[in-house]
Design goal:
Layout (H helix, E strand, L loop, with lengths): L4 H9 L5 H7 L4 H5 L4 H23 L2 E4 L3 E5 L7 H11 L4 E5 L4 E7 L2 E7 L2 H12 L7 H12 L7 H7 L2 H6 L3 H8 L2 H4 L1
Parallel strand pairs: 2-3
Antiparallel strand pairs: 1-2, 3-4, 4-5
Helix pairs in contact: 1-4, 2-4
Amino acid sequence: MSLPKRDLELLKANRRVKKEDIELAKKIEKEDLHTATDESLLRVRGLIREAGREMHNMKGFVRFKHMGKKLKYGYMKPEHHIGFMISEWFANRFPGVVIVLGNEKESWVSIRTEKGVESEESEDIKSTVEKLADVLGLETEKDFQGLWENYYKSQYADERKNIELFEKNMPAKFRKRARNITENRFYEKTLDELE
């Protein structure tokens, strides 16, 4: 009798989890959690949802840069310990491609092979990408950031500017944690200012 594996992983990934939260989660069923009125069960449910919500948002807000067809890397600074889960999710989505997600302090590297997904934690993203590029014999990235900015420029229309909707769908917290430079720049400036 226990919660599903994914819920337990999300609970353990939450930075605010306590040992007693994990012990309690191992003793209850998912249905008990959804119908709970007890404070401790409500806390467990909240912790799972909090980490799950951040994971969902990070999947949508991470912007990849490419080094050839073998390596994709992107900036991510999650609040919770979900780096591995997200890098493994992208590795499953792009089999045979090395996925590197991280920030100035840590990074997560994953790749899906015939044997399954292999992952490891590494130092900062910059040195990790440099080492992998050297090992894989890859050249520096193409200007995908420029392409992304051109796309944004081509889609911009002042009459469709809706700041409330933008902030609702792309909260500042996640724009900052995923370092969405282009989106932030377009949010703050008009098209005339960008030309």
